[in-house]
Design goal:
Strand order of the largest sheet: 1-3-2-4-5-6
Strand content: 15-25%
Number of helices: 4
Shape: globular
Radius of gyration: 15 Å
Structural class: alpha/beta
């Protein structure tokens, strides 16, 4: 499996933040959901590049390859909870164990029918930095990216 990469241009309305993120990694096994995530992100113009991984193990491979090449890791990881091969919780634990998330904000994606997702896996070594419901809400994504950019610019 090779991840697909997409170059992004600013949406027609302009980027809602002072600068777009360099990269967002989307980890979702459902092609329709991944397509909708890309549509929202492209419409907002919040990233220069999107990289897709179809499950947690594929995402680990992407991040390990980046580290091996001394490339920067994505600033934001959008991570589905339930996936085959390696789910979101397993990804969080393994990626954290290998130091692959030290510079990334992780947002866990959940189906809106999931109640109290924060309590699903309380024993996980690392918890996500935030939760978003599927389908992605453009305003919620813009707030997260705005905070990332603001925090990165702070002295």
């Amino acid at each position: 499996f090779l991840p697909r990469r997409h170059s992004l241009r600013r949406g027609t309305g302009g980027c809602p933040v002072s600068r777009p993120l360099r990269e967002i990694l989307i980890v979702d096994d459902n092609p329709a959901d991944a397509f909708l995530h890309r549509e929202v992100l492209q419409g907002l113009g919040v990233a220069e590049r999107l990289t897709d991984a179809e499950h947690g193990q594929a995402a680990i491979s992407v991040l390990c390859e980046r580290r091996k090449q001394s490339a920067r890791l994505p600033e934001l990881v959008l991570l589905d909870v339930n996936m085959p091969v390696m789910d979101g919780w397993e990804f969080l634990d393994q990626a954290s164990d290998h130091g692959l998330l030290a510079t990334s904000t992780v947002v866990m994606l959940r189906a809106t029918s999931v109640i109290a997702a924060e309590s699903i896996q309380p024993a996980a070594q690392r918890q996500p930095d935030a939760w978003l419901d599927k389908p992605l809400d453009a305003e919620a994504v813009a707030r997260i990216v705005h905070k990332l950019v603001r925090d990165a610019s702070a002295p």
